[in-house]
Specification:
This protein is α/β, with parallel strands linked by helices and 249 residues long. The chain is built from 13 helices and eight strands. Helix 2 runs parallel beside helix 3 and helix 4 crosses helix 5. Bound molecules: 3-hydroxypyruvic acid and magnesium ion. 3-hydroxypyruvic acid binds next to helix 10.
């Protein structure tokens, strides 16, 4: 089976830089897929992707483009199975708040004997290799999101669940649910606690950023799976810069 270059990178202690895609737009995806990012976050929790667009995204990225990492809308057996059968080579599962949630994410995304994923879907074998069913447990990157006080409290136990490749912080939900200022002192202490729990468990940790400067700072801090915002934000910033320069804003 084709190796997952993003997983290999973070297992080697390097930082893999990605971009989030919220729009579900195939033309933008073609631009992104040729730009050199390590991975692409396909946003199906809050973004505008439906099943057919998610499939088209995996086809556009292909086996040589940025690694398609899908955020499913929830930690759901059917959604996760469909995301992987489309060709997702990674998952960032939202709202994993307990050991049971983490074990469910492993069950939903790994074939037996590790989990209970159902076998089927010819595209994955065709694109990634005929041994997909036997090798993909080791090649599909499974990250679970820590983004609530409940998850924070149990973060060491969650990080110890077998079958998980990375923790991933959801900083905005974490700040909202903690009732603290985003990126203030308490929030940053919680972020550091999650990073430490991940590191102590021998796992890389991910962080979603709003821009490139923040992505570089989080990489320096020790995060290994980092995205630098979304294509929607970049389009919006580019348009705002143009209208401002033209004196229209
Ligand atoms: C959060 O910050 O809560 C996220 O889920 C970011 O993607
Ligand atoms: Mg969130």
């Amino acid at each position: 089976m084709l190796k997952n270059p993003t997983l290999e990178k973070i297992r080697n202690g390097e930082t893999a830089f990605g971009l989030a895609s919220a729009t579900g737009d195939p033309i933008l995806l073609e631009v992104i897929s040729r730009a050199g990012f390590d991975w692409l976050w396909i946003e199906t929790q809050h973004g505008y992707w439906d099943y057919n667009r998610m499939l088209a995204a995996c086809q556009i990225l292909g086996p040589d483009g940025p690694t398609p990492i899908i955020r499913p809308a929830s930690n759901d057996y059917a959604r996760i199975g469909l995301s992987l059968d489309c060709g997702g080579m990674g998952l960032v599962v939202p709202m994993v708040n307990s050991v049971e949630d983490a074990e469910a994410a492993v069950y939903n995304s790994r074939y037996a004997p590790v989990g209970g994923r159902s076998s089927g879907g010819g595209r994955t074998w065709m694109v990634y290799g005929d041994d997909y069913a036997h090798e993909s447990n080791d090649e599909i990157l499974l990250a679970v999101m820590i983004e609530t006080p409940a998850a924070l409290e149990r973060v060491n136990d969650i990080a110890a669940v077998k079958g998980i490749d990375a923790l991933f912080i959801g900083p905005w939900d974490l700040a909202f649910s903690m009732g603290v200022e985003s990126f203030g002192e308490e929030h940053e202490a919680a972020i550091q606690k999650i990073l430490d729990a991940s590191t102590n468990a021998g796992l890389p940790c991910g962080f979603p950023c709003g821009d490139v400067d923040a992505a570089l700072r989080r990489a320096d801090q020790g995060f290994r799976l980092v995205h630098c915002g979304s294509e929607l934000g970049m389009v919006r910033n580019g348009i705002a810069a143009a209208t401002e320069a033209l004196g229209l804003a």
